[in-house]
Amino acid sequence: MLVTIDEPFNLAATLESGQAFRWHKAGDVYQGVVFGNVIEIRGVPRGIEFSCLPDAENDIAPLLCDYLGLNIDLASVYEAISVDKHIEEAITRYSGMRVLRQDPWECLVGFICSSASNIPRISRNVEDISIAFGKPIGRSIKRHSFPTPEDLAEAGEKRIFRLGLGYRATYLSKTAQAVAEGDMDLASLRKDSYGHALEALVTLAGVGDKVANCVLLFSLDKPEAFPVDTWIIRVLREWYLDEAMPNSLPKMRAWAQGYFGPYAGYANQYLFHERRRRDRS
DNA sequence: TGGAAGCCTGGTGT
DNA sequence: AACACCAGGCTTC
After folding, report:
1. Cβ contact A168 with chain B strand, < 7 A
2. A89 CA vs B3 C1’ separation (Å)
């Protein structure tokens, strides 16, 4: 099915910028699992072409656009965060990169897995978790739905550990229990304020300031969220903050949120992507 | 209250 | 080949 998109959209940058971990690229096609569907997307000149299984494309199309962050007016975001040369350069280079709007539970699990790890490994971890505790989709034996909090809580720490998650297995097991038992209502955090939602998230095992801000930005409608990881620390040190400045994580985050404003998270995503690319080339 | 060590594992460098 | 060292971080002391 063809979906025309009139606003700027960069499919590759959106799916390859470390926001989600279940997209595989084969040629010019991205395959992923969203809404319990195996989805394949290809960028075309004026939009995207996609297919999905097992649901009808007509039903999935609006959900997919929402997931891809296409319901946000990027032009006004750019206007808000274009406060200096560095950010303007990154915007120019990755124009159309979106912030995804993911399922909060899956996003949370992905970023708990991310601590002291790297994208290839996180992807493998998340895929292994899906295969072990999710359900095969349609007749495909290759891709599986993402397990529910109940699925993961029942699986238990031991079986998670055996997938090679290391010390993260404890975090995942505890957090899954908290969500499954209703001690943590992730969906309600979408309507909460940024501050309150952050406060709630960091009570979960394996969730500190960085992971919480990733979940807030990529799944809970909090565009002011600003995850400070080692790449962003480099950006801030090299381009923004004096070296003598105190470098505690929450202080750096607060500074950036004040500097970039209500859409600081978008600035974060562009600077992050730009800084990593620069290191690789 | 800040800062450093430890934690599982896999990849990378020596 | 075998062995350090470290990574997109959290927790604990």
Report:
1. yes
2. 35
- Burial (0-12, 13-18, 19+ Cβ within 10 Å), A280: exposed
Quick one: tokens of A128?
């292994």
Cβ proximity of A133 and A147 under 8 Å: yes
Q: Which residue is nearest to nucleotide B9 (CA to C1')?
A: A166
Residues of A assigned a catalytic role: 210
A210 touches strand B (CB under 7 A): no
pLDDT tens digits for range A206-245: 999 999 999 999 999 999 999 999 889 889 988 888 766 6
Q: With b meaning 16 or more CB within 10 Å and e meaning fewer, what string describes A93-104?
A: ebebbbbbbbbb
Residues A154-173 pLDDT 10s:
999 999 999 999 999 999 99
pLDDT on residue A251: 87
**Residue A148 CB in 7 A reach of strand C:** no
Nucleotides of C under 7 A from a protein CB: 7-11
Count how many residues are written for chain A: 281
CA distances from A198 to A190, A215, A261 (A): 11, 9, 17
Q: With a 7 Å cutoff on the CB, does A202 touch strand C?
A: yes
∠ Cα A245 A251 A252 (to 5°)? 70
**A225 close to A265: Cβ distance less than 8 angstroms:** yes
**Whole-model pTM?**
0.96
Tokens 């690789």 sit at which residue? A280
CA–CA distance, A180 with A218 (Å, rounded to integer): 21
